[in-house]
Amino acid sequence: MNRVIRIGTRDSQLAVWQATWVQQLLIEKGVASELVYIKSEGDIDLVTPLYEIGVQGIFTKTLDAALLSKKIDIAVHSMKDVPTQLAKGIREAAVLKRASHKDLLVFKDAATPEAIGFVNGEWSMVNRDLLPIEHSPFTIATSSVRRKAQWLNRFPHHQFDNLRGNVNTRLRKLEESNWMGAIFAAAGLERIQLRPEKSVELDWMLPAPAQGAVMVVCREDEKNIFEACHQLNHAATAVCATAERQFLRVLMGGCATPISALAEISGTEMIFSGNVLSLDGQQKVEVIKSFSLTNTEQAGTEAANEIMENGGAAIIKAIRNHAG
């Protein structure tokens, strides 16, 4: 197409990296584009995106508003932040190949895994005396209720502090804190080459649905732009991430509900793992199911229904009552 596609992005390092990646992929397809930096809602003619669930879209609404206002032609999002029901007038154009889906524990510089006895994903108290005295030995930082609940399910006596901001801000806060460590998405740190050496993958922790994937969206009425961007679609990632988001949608999970899901393709099958936990991590309902790759359309729904039938409905109800 002859048109130069305007790619909307926030100005954080990770957001710019993702948008630049899309730009490079479009160049490879012979499509010209330019980056448009969206500072805040006040910088655009605001058209309020109409999402199905009120609080959803908190991380995407500024770009979605710019898209609906025709200030940009496409928006690039971390897929895990995108509401399961897109804003009216917006459609999915492509899902890019997934990076690592894993969560990562980043240790504060003064506390190495050996000093605190963290070996093979488990804790030991044998070396606790080696901790610097100013450290809060078992305080972990994260703002994610999903990460917190899964951690407390495994380590119920540990403590948590909230940690917000972009990747760079959170890394800086960790250095300035007395926390033992903080949890990050591996993909975010690795993409911008900020993964610290003193970090470990939490292989036992299920990710947020679609974690590690990037989504490109456009306006529903822009057929040419959709077709140009859809050339970038990675089918396997799209199938898996769609199943995970379907699981989240059926469970009606938002930022305040500890819901995790991971779909992976193995041979001719999709292996789907999902769980829901109580906020304190004491209750957990999980599911692992296999689906033929010729029959994945309802994979997320079937897995979610099994969760609900086996006790997940009661956990989710309790969380809603607590929030209310």
Structure report:
The protein is α/β, with parallel strands linked by helices and 324 residues long. The chain has 3 domains: 1-98 and 213-233, Periplasmic binding protein-like II (D-Maltodextrin-Binding Protein, domain 2), CATH 3.40.190; 103-201, Periplasmic binding protein-like II (D-Maltodextrin-Binding Protein, domain 2, 3-Layer(aba) Sandwich); 234-324, Porphobilinogen deaminase, C-terminal domain (Double Stranded RNA Binding Domain). 32% of the residues lie in helices and 23% in strands. It is built from 9 helices and 15 strands. It has helices at residues 13-28, 61-68, 113-116, 145-154, 167-176, 186-191, 223-230, 235-251, 299-323; strands at 5-9, 33-37, 74-78, 90-95, 103-107, 118-119, 122-123, 139-141, 159-161, 181-185, 199-201, 214-219, 259-266, 269-277, 284-292. Strands 2-1-3-12-4 form a 5-stranded mixed β-sheet, sandwiched between helices. It has a 5-stranded mixed β-sheet with strand order 9-8-10-5-11. Helix 8 packs across helix 9 (299-323). The longest helix has 25 residues, at 299-323. It is globular. It is an enzyme of class 2 (transferase).
